[in-house]
Amino acid sequence: MKLDRRSLLGLLGAGAATPAVAQAAHSGQVAFLHGVASGDPDHHSAVFWTRVTPADPSAGEIPVVLEVAKDAGFTDMVRRTADLTARAERDFTVKHDLHGRGLEPGHEYFYRFIARGVTSPVGRVRTLPLGATPQVNLAVVSCQLYPGGLFNAYEAISQLDRLDAVVHLGDYIYEYGAAPNDYGMNTGAPLGRSPLPPHEIVSLADYRTRHAQYKTDPDLQAAHARAAFICVWDDHEVANDTWMRGAENHQPATEGDFAARKAAALRAYFEWMPIREAKAGAMKEAINRSFHFGDLASLHMVETRLLARVEQMEFADIPKTADGRPDLDAFEAQRQDPSRDLLGEPQRRWLGEAMRQSKAAGRPWQILGNQVIMARVKGPNIEQMVPPAQLAQMVSGLPDDVRPQVETAIQLFRLGLPFNLDSWDGYPAGRERLYETMKQAGVEPIVLAGDSHAFWVNELYDNGGERRAVEFGTSAISSPSPGDHVGGLPLGLALQAANPEVKFCDQSAKGYVLLTLERDQAVGELRTVSTILAKPYENRTLKRYRLARTETGLGPLEDVTAPA
């Protein structure tokens, strides 16, 4: 998500890591400048990743060894893989999917890489459990704009005592450049966090350079070293507001063929991220997959950008009636068009069967890792939030090129239009088909969402008024939040008041969601950092919600936040 014209609100706003991570291992020949990472854990394996930086960029093949042990001192070694190679054709990244039954289910292991006598930082990974599983802990993250601020939330995650995996819901990188008016540079320039390369990324070399820069951040390295990441992309891994055949932030006349740009972006993504490679003959876009945590839970990750998403609607393109008023009936007819979808029928069938099979296996919790907010959310009426004189003063102080858009937005807010057409609200027919899939599978899942740069706790209802799921939306690690742009207006409270599905919303805080699953309950904690502009910072729990698991399904959401 970027605060742009598709979000009504967008019109209103025109370190210290662990020592092993903070100090890059290097010699005169090679260096481990980008840390280590693991991902996509299963019961006996995981994907292990690093990048070997050669002193000579024209270096050929570099032999690499992967060691996995039960202890941090590597005295109890369980696997040693000595036939890995860092090659220029993959930007000297190394990724190994540890096959076989060398690792035991539900155990934590330590790993490291060695190249030409240089040893990498040490990482930790926990394999997925089998059988009886009393508890699962997942940190849910999204939206890390490098110039947007420090990655303090990742440092906080790296210090968690118990963590099974980090669930990343997308916007791992952003594509924008480093010009003074580019996205996030109002904070990036003072912090010395300008993106590389300094222009908008389009080519394979551009995307590789941007991924490389992000992975030099010590807090991000610390989080990757702490636990396995389970990732999906959202839009900015390619370009803002990506859909099947294009993106809002892609101009073919100057940036070439979108398919070529997408191919470059996905190649760099698979090189630089600890995610399993697409199988031979499979579409690279199809990264939907499931993870089973013993007898307790299944996590189903879906793809909502490249496989089936039709183009986003535009508030600027609302039809007009003969007398020049917004034609809301025509707009709503277009929004409700049955062809509007995010998942597509093949992925929806896969998800329904995966949830059905997991329930049949006796797992009480079905978790849906989804990129964008699923709840029905209409925009708040700004005119009811602030006195007329204050609103007029705010609008009059805006730049001339922004003021007309803001005035239009205020009118649209009054009409109760959806808050963000890039979310599921822009695809209500597809959402209803998904709810029917949940019903047919006999499950009431917990939906996880990112993209919005805000915290959400929502209850999701179908058109018949039946609750189909509960949603926890995580805020950004560092990307600008809607509340950052509106002068302290209580947007979260306004959205709660205007939308029955929204139980809690904070449009300013940064951080992550910690989801703890047990047999009879799930607890979602909205964890925040006090600042992304400096260190030190303070951690706190903004809200804590409990969801009981009963014999007949999910119980009510309970706010169990401890008193301040």
Automatic annotation (TrEMBL):
Secretion signal, residue range per the UniProt entry: 1-22
Enzyme Commission designation: 3.1.3.1
InterPro entries on file: Metallo-depent_PP-like, PhoD-like_MPP, PhoD-like_sf, PhoD_N, Phospholipid_Metab_Enz, TAT_signal
GO molecular function, one term: alkaline phosphatase activity
Domain PhoD-like phosphatase metallophosphatase: 138-522
Keywords attached to this entry: Hydrolase, Signal
Class in the EC hierarchy, top level: hydrolase
Residue ranges of every copy of the Phospholipase D N-terminal domain listed in the record: 34-127
One Pfam short name: PhoD
Domain of life where this protein originates: Bacteria
UniProt keyword NADP, yes or no: no
Protein name from the UniProt record: Alkaline phosphatase D
Upper lineage: Bacteria, Pseudomonadati, Pseudomonadota, Alphaproteobacteria, Caulobacterales
